[in-house]
Design goal:
By secondary structure, the protein is of the alpha/beta class. The chain contains eight helices and eight strands, in the order E-H-E-H-E-H-E-H-E-E-H-E-H-E-H-H. Strands 1-2-3-4-5-6-7-8 form an eight-stranded parallel β-barrel, surrounded by four helices. Helix 1 links the parallel strand 1 and strand 2. The protein binds D-xylitol-5-phosphate and zinc ion. D-xylitol-5-phosphate binds next to strand 2, strand 3, strand 8 and helix 7. The site of zinc ion (ZN) has 6 residues, from strand 2.
């Protein structure tokens, strides 16, 4: 299983976003993780379509868009036009999952479904044949820099088993760093979102390398 790293720009220096994206490109991250929050689905606001358009228009990176918004189906076309390559939405949102997945595919993007820590892993099972990505939140969505919820490894494990031979990415998001990455990967995750760990690390290239290749001696 080849692991990939998707870098969250939520906690980057937004005044110098172009420089931050270029640092991530040089560090050879696989994707750029774009956290969209509406202040309703989560108790925070972030950025949206115009910022994605600016970033996507100036980077060759794959745009991995994570929608933490209450009615994702209303914005799929606009996010796709703005440069999204993959759009992941929450099953706890008010949108119909099958219809939202259909809209994402129709817009030419890969589709992902996500669940919050309190939602049982079984919630994703009906959709495994329809999506390219399953995102298990390992913190409560809303803020970067939180601690990894270790109990989520059982859920990751269960979903990895359920995926079987399907060609579907299993993404983890929240609190991924040198101390938690092995637990997530050993449970079956292969797409790792990291924000604060990458931006706080004195050597971003080394940090990306460590997430992708593992950390001997960690859990
Ligand atoms: C939380 C976001 C995450 C988060 C990742 O709502 O979905 O993408 O910003 O940041 P770290 O790696 O700092 O937990
Ligand atoms: Zn995210």
């Amino acid at each position: 299983m080849k692991r990939k790293v998707s870098a969250s720009i939520l906690n980057s220096d937004l005044l110098h976003l172009a420089d931050e994206v270029s640092l991530l490109e040089h560090a050879k991250v696989d994707m750029l993780h774009f956290d969209v929050m509406d202040g309703i689905f989560v108790p925070n606001l972030s950025f949206g379509i115009p910022v994605l358009q600016a970033v996507a228009g100036n980077s060759h990176l794959f745009m991995d868009v994570h929608l933490m918004i209450i009615r994702p189906h209303l914005y799929i076309t606009e996010f796709a036009k703005a440069g999204a390559d993959m759009i992941t939405f929450h099953l706890e949102s008010e949108s119909d999952p099958v219809e939202t997945i259909r809209l994402i595919h129709e817009a030419g993007c890969k589709a992902g479904i996500s669940i919050k820590p309190g939602t049982p892993g079984e919630a994703v099972l009906p959709y495994l044949d329809m999506v390219e990505n399953v995102l298990v939140m390992t913190v409560e969505p809303g803020f970067g820099g939180q601690s990894f919820i270790w109990e989520m490894t059982d859920k990751i494990h269960m979903i990895r088993d359920a995926l079987g031979e399907r060609d579907v990415m299993l993404q983890v998001d929240g609190g991924i760093n040198d101390e938690t990455v092995n637990a997530a990967v050993n449970a079956g995750a292969d797409l790792l979102v990291a924000g604060s760990y990458l931006f706080k690390h004195p050597d971003m290239n080394a940090a990306v390398q460590l997430l992708r290749c593992g950390n001997e001696g960690s859990v």
